[in-house]
Specification:
The structure holds 2 protein chains of 2 kinds.
Chain A lengths: L1 E8 L4 H8 L2 H4 L6 E8 L2 E10 L2 E15 L4 E10 L5 E11 L2 E10 L8 H19 L3
Antiparallel strand pairs in A: 1-7, 2-3, 3-4, 4-5, 5-6, 6-7
Chain B lengths: L1 E3 L4 E7 L1 E2 L7 E7 L2 E5 L4 E5 L4 E8 L6 H16 L4 E11 L2 E10 L2 E12 L2 E9 L9 E2 L4 E3 L2 E9 L8
Antiparallel strand pairs in B: 1-5, 2-4, 2-14, 3-13, 4-7, 5-6, 6-8, 8-9, 9-10, 10-11, 11-14, 12-13
The chains are: A alpha+beta, B mainly beta.
Amino acid sequence: MVELDHSFTTGKPADYNWDAVLDLDRIIPCVEGGKVIELESPDLAKAEIKVKMGAMSMTFKGTVAVIERDEVAKRAVLRIKSKDTGGTGYANADVAFTLADGGGTIHTAATISGKAASMGEGVVSSVLDALINDFTGKLANI
Amino acid sequence: MSALGPENGTLTVRTGKAGAAAKAGHNLVIEVTRWQGKLSPESVELTADARSLRVRSGSGGISPLGDEEKAGISQTIDEEVLEGGNISYRSSAVTARDGGYDVEGELDLLGVSAPLAFSLDVDGDHLTGSASVKQTDWRIKPYSALFGTLKVADVVEVSIDATLPRSPSDG
């Protein structure tokens, strides 16, 4: 399990940030290579992420579900469950958002197996950290 | 003066990898398929077509490089790294030594000129040599992917392996 903490700024009110983060159609494409395949309900989307490694790429397909939402505390947890379409590996994560006026924080707990994990936890952690940093940059303009 | 090119030699670029996710990448062997050189005891000149680099093999990485990936990398080199720019080398000094030459000169790479020195070894009609090219010395930002965690190593090795043509005086 890789656990990472990040923060982000939007300069927007907490209510705006809350609505944006819980709008799966808006937030999933903020992950580089991420796209919604089908929004099944406001709390569940089929989605995929294509991670490019130069000419090589890995595609993970699965679901993004809102498993916790506490509007008073402005805390929500998204659960990502996905499988590597080119192998037997998977990438799962619980991503907890705590939102406030101006931005928020993200706690990510991820479990990855297969080819990606074969690079070692340190590498997975570095890549995931870079991916989430890129994500937080996009949240600034959400 | 000996004329060199793909018909009597190979010009190869070997790249390594760097960054936190270096394990995910491949060490590449890339052949320059269109180039020409002129070699004499006094001077060395070489030009290469930046659009002619082709990935021949890759080692390392989390999965083997297939033909599609090799073609994809060749296309990326063409479109995002070299962009068809000029590649030419001209010596300023060639010093003969036992078994070869020490060469000094200037490499013009994509419009930036910087000094580059290397050695050439000659064994009969067999010529070999290699030079280390540090991309940032020519203001080239090494290609990166995976949010910057996987990079091509700054220094690439360029090597030549050729059979010297017989000169008319050889009879």
